[in-house]
Automatic annotation (TrEMBL):
GO terms for molecular function: methyltransferase activity. GO terms for biological process: methylation. Its EC number is 2.1.1.-. Keywords: Methyltransferase, Transferase. The lineage of its organism: Bacteria, Bacillati, Actinomycetota, Actinomycetes, Kitasatosporales. This is Class I SAM-dependent methyltransferase. It comes from the Bacteria. Residues 95-142 are annotated as: Disordered.
Amino acid sequence: MTPTLVRQHSTHAGTTPHVDLRARARDWSEIQERMLVPLYEAVHERLDVGGDTRVLGLGCGSGLALLMAASRGAAVTGVDSRSPELLALARRRLLPGTPGEPGAAQAPQSPATAGPHARGGIPRIVEGPPEDAADPTSPPYTLVTAFEPTGCRTGDAEELGALLARATPLAARGAAVVLTGWGPPERCATTSVLRVAARLSDPLRGPGSWRPALRDDLEEVAQRAGLRPDGSGRVACPFGYADTGSAVRGLLSTGLFDAAVAATGGEQVDKELREALHPHQRPDGTVWMPNVFRYLVARVP
């Protein structure tokens, strides 16, 4: 969920629900982002990310995927223009000593993975468009990642296509470009919860509203961007929460419910979210929803 999954500032009408953006960024980094760790790990393993890899992370958000790549020895650059609050957390994770958001969760590090600077160079976090990540003093990027799932909001495929058009000129010929998205709706328990977002955003549905993922979403984006598909995979990414309150906070941090909040108000969305989560609550109060995510590996021609 994107780009990170978080869409901090946009809704169908171009307005922003009244939310505490710092609190939302913390909820994403502390609760929701870890749900995508299996996806990040699968991609890094598939592409043998290591000391020879130069990663450009589009929509890098709070930077957990970049941190994991840097821990494997990669040189990483993250770029995002949407959320200063998330980028502050990314800088704190990747650039120790940089002022960030107090209390933000950090990915656990062992002696083998701590200090990515020594292995892959100093990470870069760029607030702005992809072309701002150009570095004429370094070789082209060998891996471009777009880990925010595509195909779950109306208009997001077009947005990603525009980003790729600006980012791929920075990559080497033959470089891998990774696109990610939700798996088939019937394989994702969270689909029933996300349908609340679609239902409550009607009749004002527009850009930013949730929609179910389609089978060829990723392939269509790659084709429009002039990329050559080179394999794909599916990864189990269950969503697990300590309780319903944590689940609501985590899901709201994705931004997928912003259009619904703008249309009906936060209280109504909170109420219906809790009702939709009830079938997924276990006897001990925890919430568990199995999901499958897809990734597509494409190549820069």
